[in-house]
Amino acid sequence: MKNLLKIISVLALGILLSFSFSKEKKVVVIDAGHGGTDFGASRNGISEKEIVLNIAKKIKALNQNPNLEIILTRDDDSYPTLTDRTGKINKLKPDFAISLHINNSPRETTDNKGMEVFVQENEVSKKLATKFSEKFQDSKIRTGNLHILRESKMPAILLELGFMNNPDERNYLASEKGQTETAEKILKFIDEN
Hints:
Elements: H1 2-21, E1 26-32, E2 42-43, E3 46-47, H2 48-62, E4 68-72, H3 82-92, E5 96-103, E6 116-119, H4 123-135, E7 140-143, H5 147-151, E8 156-163, H6 167-174, H7 176-192
Helix pairs in contact: 2-7, 6-7
């Protein structure tokens, strides 16, 4: 009888351990907007396509969570079409997707500032955007008929990380420090959600 109890205990422990180690990975797709001949917003030799690619690559490189997989829609200076990007997202079926961009207005000014979060018209995406906005208090939630949001079948948000026409934000986002800090903040948000 004691041997039978030992065997049952060992089996039960094995089953519990297998459940704890078989935790499903969270998968998040990061889309670095623009790329290739599409520079996005550009000023003073600084381009949106380079900044968002650097931040996307940093998010992936900084990830130390074995239960989180970060997949990029592009990891070089290429231009996957919008259909390619949403096709990849829909094929991978991630927990959610984040598209990275930088806002721009015609006039150089410090009046335009802060992040904006564009969201899909569904509850999961709105909840994600609300959580993001709460974490980054300078961000505003917006809706828009944007391809990456409209055509992604998985929850998605589009982040405008700041304004290219705001010299302070442009210089910060173009700097190594700014890109690393932005990547760390986004990765922390992903980890917590």
